[in-house]
């Protein structure tokens, strides 16, 4: 297994069209240590952006991710990757055409290849796309970082990036193929009516009439939709609101903050970053030192007791209770 210089970290390399659009979806997730935009798969050394754009170097625009598989497994990177691309397009991606914009998964080990092949086969069998899945799985080779101006483009050129991303059609494509009516129907079957209304329609539960507002058991709370670990019972406190309250999340990277004006005043709403589920709100009236109160609906979470963590695949989080 090819590893990053830090013990236990691995590399993942994905080509998904313009590399500007391939950073933000992975950035700042738990276990993601770095994301570098660059060029790979070609026959020239140290190519420039202009040279790759001539389509004569054979290189793909790609991103290389250094990650900790114990925190964020390779399979989850693949899940995100498939939702960023059109895997049936062999001539580029969206409005960007040419070989340098083709999709490919560059694998760094036999283990990664096996997981990538299985993931590709599962996608093909799902019937989500009518066309053939043409994304290739190729051995990783030399990777050349792109020029500084192309690194973290979504942060350093926010206005230009937003215009480009919206105009590319990526968002519309993802909405069409990854948020289908049948996906919603399957979600309705998995969730209770209350869970569905809270997570998908932004409903809030009544105070004191919810499952976890006064929970005193040790364990963690996970996203009821996709299982991401959100909060630990050790950080839960009684805020006097009749709803679960926490001083901090387990991983800030699994949360997304959005402005919420529904109550007639500005508030900060909390959503699951990868699930898209509505969770609750963040207030700045919590206990010191941070002074934050993450107020979360019980229906948006599932509680995993401390003694069940290993069995349910959350063994890593037993360390949260060491010495307790």
Automatic annotation (TrEMBL):
EC id: 1.8.4.11
GO molecular function: peptide-methionine (R)-S-oxide reductase activity; peptide-methionine (S)-S-oxide reductase activity
Active site: 18
InterPro entries in the cross-refs: Met_Sox_Rdtase_MsrA_dom, Met_Sox_Rdtase_MsrA_sf, Met_Sox_Rdtase_MsrB_dom, Mss4-like_sf
Keywords: Multifunctional enzyme, Oxidoreductase
MsrB domain sequence ranges: 184-306
Enzyme class: oxidoreductase
Catalysed reaction equations from the record: L-methionyl-[protein] + [thioredoxin]-disulfide + H2O = L-methionyl-(R)-S-oxide-[protein] + [thioredoxin]-dithiol; L-methionyl-[protein] + [thioredoxin]-disulfide + H2O = L-methionyl-(S)-S-oxide-[protein] + [thioredoxin]-dithiol; [thioredoxin]-disulfide + L-methionine + H2O = L-methionine (S)-S-oxide + [thioredoxin]-dithiol
Family to which the UniProt record says this protein belongs: Belongs to the MsrA Met sulfoxide reductase family.
Biological function: Has an important function as a repair enzyme for proteins that have been inactivated by oxidation. Catalyzes the reversible oxidation-reduction of methionine sulfoxide in proteins to methionine.
Protein name: Peptide methionine sulfoxide reductase MsrA
Organism the protein comes from: Paenibacillus favisporus
């Amino acid at each position: 297994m090819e590893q990053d210089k830090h013990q236990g970290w691995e590399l993942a390399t994905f080509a998904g069209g313009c590399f500007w659009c391939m950073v933000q979806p992975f950035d700042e997730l738990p276990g993601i240590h770095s994301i570098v935009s660059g060029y790979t798969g070609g026959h020239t050394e140290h190519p420039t952006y202009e040279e790759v754009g001539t389509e004569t170097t054979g290189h793909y625009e790609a991103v290389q991710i250094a990650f900790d598989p114990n925190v964020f497994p390779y399979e989850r990177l693949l899940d995100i990757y498939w939702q960023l691309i059109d895997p049936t397009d062999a001539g580029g991606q969206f409005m960007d055409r040419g070989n340098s914009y083709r999709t490919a998964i560059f694998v760094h080990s036999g283990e990664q290849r096996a997981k990538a092949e299985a993931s590709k086969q599962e996608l093909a069998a799902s019937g989500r796309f009518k066309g053939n899945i043409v994304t290739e799985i190729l051995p990783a080779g030399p990777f050349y970082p792109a020029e500084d101006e192309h690194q973290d483009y979504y942060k350093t050129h926010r206005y230009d990036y937003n215009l480009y991303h919206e105009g590319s059609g990526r968002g519309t494509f993802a909405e069409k193929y990854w948020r289908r009516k049948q996906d919603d129907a399957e979600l309705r079957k998995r969730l209770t009516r209350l869970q569905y209304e809270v997570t998908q329609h932004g409903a809030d539960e009544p105070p004191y009439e919810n499952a976890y507002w006064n929970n005193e058991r040790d364990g963690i709370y996970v996203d009821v939709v996709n299982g991401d670990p959100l909060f630990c019972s050790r950080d839960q406190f009684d805020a006097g609101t009749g709803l679960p309250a926490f001083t901090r999340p387990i991983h800030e990277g699994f949360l997304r903050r959005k402005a919420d004006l529904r109550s007639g005043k500005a508030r900060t709403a909390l959503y699951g970053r990868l699930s898209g589920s509505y969770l609750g709100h963040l207030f700045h009236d919590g206990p010191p030192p941070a002074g934050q109160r993450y107020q979360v609906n019980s229906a948006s979470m599932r509680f995993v007791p401390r003694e069940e963590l290993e069995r349910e695949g959350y063994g890593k989080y037993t360390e949260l209770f060491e010495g307790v």
